């Protein structure tokens, strides 16, 4: 299979995975209601933050050590596997204890459910650390299998929950843990020829790997933390039940769905940026922003107007309380799109540290505004916090890109007739 076909296959797998997540979200929301869905999403948010932090970016660093520095896969996989297994064992103990001894935050849950979820979190940690080895090997089919397995298990768990009338968040949380565990075991099977746990630890290699990985992980951790801080603080301020978290996460889920569309358009446009310089790069960036921002604005307007109908169609009338928050989040879609393109432009030009500083400031704004507003305003306050962070990120990114790449802001906002012609021409078969 050629590199292009592998890329298309992986992209198709990722899109299929997103669709499965969306379908599972609809099933779980209708089965669990706002309260049950809120508890389930709180566990997912906590898992993402903790796993991203503990993994230390070792997986991404492994790609560089395998492909650029030409290390033996056995050395990389065996050493990182030992570390991730050790960290995973500590994660199982720590997560289980945190859940069982803090019922006011996580809610009352059985020990077996907490343990299975914690094992799933440890499995996700190992997957995050070792899956990039498949990326380095361009093992596209295996990558898609690992990505799809947990999503399929979660979806099947939702269908089984309806079939057995076991409509509880514990059932959903267990399915999440089982899905991640099966994916991890499958990954270890794929990498079995490289895993030699009898090998002594290569401390020098691990030191070099961690030194490189920590730099890479900072931006990713800040991104995940910023995306989940509103959920975690919302739960902290609304501990009487999980309904507010459930309503808010459904508004976030819908806004996440619509964010995909301009992101797909943008990815096709800035794929060639690495080879562009000077005026050509400026024109391409302005073109990408015009197209993506116009598409984003149109989608945002549709969601804003028909938000209540969209919520009813997907999740039912029980989630009408998410309507105002969804409108606020939809209004920030254009800012998210422009920030995303600017960040890709900066990262493609070797300015990853700049994006990290922007993310750090964005996280501070989102966290602060959330802390100040959710106590009185609930999910609307959380949505406003996200809006503030997105506006700041957009303005800051545009200002920096204007200075570095000579962008004309007036040429970045509204799509032109010539842009439509260019897009139509590019879609024609050659």
Describe it for me?
By secondary structure, this protein is an all-alpha fold. Helices cover 83% and strands 0% of the residues. The protein is built from 15 helices and no strands. The radius of gyration is 22 Å and the shape is globular. The two termini are 22 Å apart.
Draw up the topology in text.
Blueprint: H1 3-55, H2 58-67, H3 73-100, H4 103-106, H5 111-136, H6 140-164, H7 169-190, H8 203-237, H9 243-269, H10 278-315, H11 323-331, H12 333-348, H13 352-377, H14 379-405, H15 417-427
Can you summarize the main beta sheet?
A: none
Q: So what's the overall shape?
A: globular
Beta-strand share of residues: under 5%
Poorly predicted ranges: none
The helix content is: over 70%
**What's the SSE pattern?**
HHHHHHHHHHHHHHH
Number of distinct beta strands: 0
Structure class: mainly alpha
Residue-averaged pLDDT: 84
The oligomeric status of these chains comes to: single chain
Number of helices: 15
As a whole number of angstroms, the C-alpha radius of gyration is: 22 Å
Which features would summarize this protein structure in a list?
single chain; 430 residues; mainly alpha; 15 helices; globular
């Amino acid at each position: 299979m050629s590199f292009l076909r592998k890329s298309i296959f992986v992209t198709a797998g990722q899109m299929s995975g997103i669709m499965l997540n969306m379908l599972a979200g609809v099933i779980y929301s209708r089965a669990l209601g706002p309260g049950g869905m809120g508890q389930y999403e709180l566990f997912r948010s906590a898992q993402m933050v903790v796993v991203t932090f503990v993994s230390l970016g070792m997986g991404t660093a492994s790609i560089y050590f395998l492909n650029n520095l030409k290390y033996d896969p056995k050395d990389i996989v065996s050493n990182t596997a030992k570390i991730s297994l050790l960290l995973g064992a500590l994660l199982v103990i720590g997560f289980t204890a945190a859940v069982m001894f803090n019922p006011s935050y996580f809610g009352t849950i059985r020990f077996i459910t907490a343990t299975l979820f914690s094992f799933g979190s440890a499995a996700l940690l190992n997957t995050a650390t070792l899956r990039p080895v498949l990326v380095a090997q361009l093992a596209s089919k295996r990558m898609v299998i690992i990505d799809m397995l947990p999503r399929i298990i979660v979806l099947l768990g939702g269908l089984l929950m309806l079939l057995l009338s076991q409509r509880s968040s514990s059932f959903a949380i267990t399915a999440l843990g089982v899905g991640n565990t099966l994916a991890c075991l499958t990954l270890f099977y794929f990498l079995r020829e490289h895993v030699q746990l009898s090998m002594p630890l290569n401390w020098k290699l691990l030191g070099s790997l961690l030194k490189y990985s920590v730099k890479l992980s900072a931006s990713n951790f800040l991104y995940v933390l910023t995306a989940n801080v509103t959920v975690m603080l919302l739960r902290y301020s609304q501990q009487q039940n999980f309904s507010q978290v459930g309503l808010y996460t459904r508004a976030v889920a819908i806004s996440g769905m619509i964010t995909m569309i301009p992101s797909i358009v943008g990815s096709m446009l800035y794929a060639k940026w690495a080879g562009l310089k000077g005026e050509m790069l400026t024109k391409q960036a302005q073109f990408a922003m015009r197209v993506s921002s116009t598409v984003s604005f149109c989608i945002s307007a549709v969601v804003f107007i028909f938000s209540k109908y969209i919520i009813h169609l997907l999740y039912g009338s029980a989630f009408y309380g998410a309507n105002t928050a969804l409108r606020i989040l939809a209004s920030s879609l254009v800012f998210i799109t422009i920030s995303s393109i600017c960040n890709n432009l900066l990262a493609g030009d070797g300015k990853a540290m700049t994006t990290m500083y922007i993310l750090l400031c964005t996280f501070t704004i989102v966290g602060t505004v959330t802390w100040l507003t959710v106590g009185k305003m609930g999910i609307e306050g959380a949505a406003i916090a996200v809006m503030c962070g997105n506006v700041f990120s957009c303005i800051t990114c545009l200002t920096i890109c204007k200075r570095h790449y000579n962008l004309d802001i007036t040429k970045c906002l509204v799509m032109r007739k010539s842009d439509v012609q260019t897009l139509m021409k590019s879609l024609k078969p050659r």
